[in-house]
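Annex B. Sample input.
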Amino acid sequence: MWRKSAVLCMAIITFASCAPQHQYSREEALAMRQQYDEKRTRIYTDRTTQDVLQAVHELFTLADVDYYVTPSESGCMAYRRWSVYFVIGFVMGKDYWYVAATAAENGTKVVIREVTDATGYTGTTTGGGGAQVTTITSMVNPDFIEFEEMQKNHDLYKVFFARLDYLLKQDNSKWVGCDEALLKYSAIDPLCLVASDKKPE
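Annex B, continued. Sample output.
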């Protein structure tokens, strides 16, 4: 499963720049941004910002031993490096998560964002029996949001919030591990690709 994800990642990086881009009106763009923000926002009643941020820290610690969490008073950034090798090359990348927690009426508002910066290396034949290495780089600036990111299937955020719900003891919540998540969701690599995937005790 994860090998297919890595190959798909390289294909997207390779061909994304070739596809014609739709020009959105301001109204369309604002509507898209609103929908995206709704998917990555949650309000937890009767939970302080520190309650939420402590649970977020635990979430990343459980997700993968390679995640490092840099905290602040109002949020945190979590990041990890990863690499996947396959027959004709390999992919290296970094997953970045940005989490903001602010006081809301009777609780805490949480806004999350995940950005992956991946570089693929593929060997291509030179015709003389050797091979050359081609690099494919995806540059992402975390200070703005591109249309491509807003259009993605955000199953990843569903899994994140399901886990956060569990850690914050929300009603009817349950822990969603990678084995279960991969049967229901797609594009959840930042939580499940080559991840240690521990469960809460």
